[in-house]
């Protein structure tokens, strides 16, 4: 189904909500290179305020690694499921479960860079996840997709391909945002709360499914075609405005 427009004002007090947020395309506009995005002080302050008001029940659910998230939002540190749930930091100052890069994925990254690296296609190495970014060369998306499909047939079982708005990713089968959300929902301060998840891409659909199963609020930003999300928002600006209106005040009621 295609999500409907999202009304404001969730109907529960703030201590009963758990908030999960994708980053790129949801809180930040995409850039040709992942390192080219910018986090303003206003967004850091908003997220810090929300995290305090929700008693810590706020986590990033992202394809970025935990270390990349920390560099991006420094000095703010939040709970994070990185690499689609292959990495976790369950508390802001806790230990990070790191995901290492298998040798076959590292070798494939070398091959992709040799094939596409000179054509403004960025091959991002994220441990066991390989992301091929074609935002700066959209005409090469089909070529990149074909190369990843060929590689997938040669890799050991246990990998899958996820097409995105401006690229494609290869990742282990267990790298799913829905599983990351479920893991957080089993522990304090998330357990027993109603979850909300904002995302913008194909890789977020599994997260929306987990939210829907939990009777939460699933929101897709900038939807392109069908989505299982219950609601939609037009763009990053509207997503941040929605967060401010609903979770940026002292009370959510």
How would the blueprint of this fold be written?
Layout: E1 4-5, E2 17-21, H1 41-53, E3 58-61, H2 66-73, E4 79-82, E5 87-89, H3 103-116, E6 122-126, E7 129-133, H4 141-154, E8 159-164, E9 167-172, H5 177-185, E10 194-199, H6 205-213, E11 217-221, E12 231-233, H7 236-247
Parallel strand pairs: 1-12, 2-3, 2-10, 3-4, 10-11, 11-12
Antiparallel strand pairs: 4-5, 6-7, 7-9, 8-9
Helix pairs in contact: 5-6
Brief summary of the model shown:
This protein has 7 helices and 12 strands.
Average pLDDT, rounded to a whole number, is 87
Give the class from helix and strand content and strand pairing: alpha/beta
Residues in helices, as a percent range: 25-40%
Work out the oligomeric state of the chains in this entry.
Answer: single chain
Q: What's the end-to-end separation, in Å?
A: 29 Å
User: Count of helical segments?
Assistant: 7
Strand order, main sheet: write it out. 1-12-11-10-2-3-4-5
Largest sheet: 8 strands, mixed
Give the uncertain stretches in residue-range form: none
> What's the count of strands?
12
Write down the secondary-structure element order. Answer: EEHEHEEHEEHEEHEHEEH
What percentage of amino acids are in beta strands? 15-25%
- Rg, Cα atoms, Å: 18 Å
Shape category = globular
Structure description:
There is one protein chain. The chain is an alpha/beta fold and 253 residues long. 31% of the residues lie in helices and 21% in strands. Strand 4 and strand 5 form a beta hairpin. Helix 5 (177-185) runs parallel beside helix 6. The radius of gyration is 18 Å and the shape is globular. The two termini are 29 Å apart.
């Amino acid at each position: 189904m295609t999500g409907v427009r999202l009304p404001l004002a969730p109907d529960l007090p703030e201590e009963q909500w758990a908030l999960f947020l994708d980053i790129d395309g949801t809180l930040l506009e995409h850039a040709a290179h992942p390192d080219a995005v910018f986090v303003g002080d206003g967004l850091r302050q908003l997220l810090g305020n929300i995290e305090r008001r929700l008693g810590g029940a706020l986590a990033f659910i992202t394809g970025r690694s935990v270390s990349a998230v920390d560099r991006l939002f420094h000095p703010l540190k939040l709970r994070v499921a990185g690499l689609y749930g292959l990495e976790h930091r369950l508390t802001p100052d806790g230990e990070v479960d790191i995901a290492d890069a298998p040798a076959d994925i590292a070798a494939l990254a070398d091959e992709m860079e040799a094939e596409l690296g000179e054509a403004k296609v960025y091959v991002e190495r994220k441990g066991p996840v390989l992301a091929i970014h074609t935002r700066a060369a959209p005409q090469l998306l089909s070529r990149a997709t074909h190369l990843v499909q060929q590689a997938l047939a040669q890799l050991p079982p246990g990998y899958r391909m996820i097409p995105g708005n401006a690229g494609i990713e290869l990742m282990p089968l267990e790298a799913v945002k829905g599983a990351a959300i479920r893991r957080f929902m089993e522990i304090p301060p998330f357990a027993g709360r109603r979850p909300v998840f904002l995302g913008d891409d194909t890789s977020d659909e599994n997260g929306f499914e987990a939210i829907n199963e939990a009777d939460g609020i699933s929101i897709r930003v900038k939807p392109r075609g069908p989505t299982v999300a219950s609601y939609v928002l037009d763009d990053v600006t509207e997503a941040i405005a929605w967060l401010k209106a609903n979770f940026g005040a002292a009370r959510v009621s």
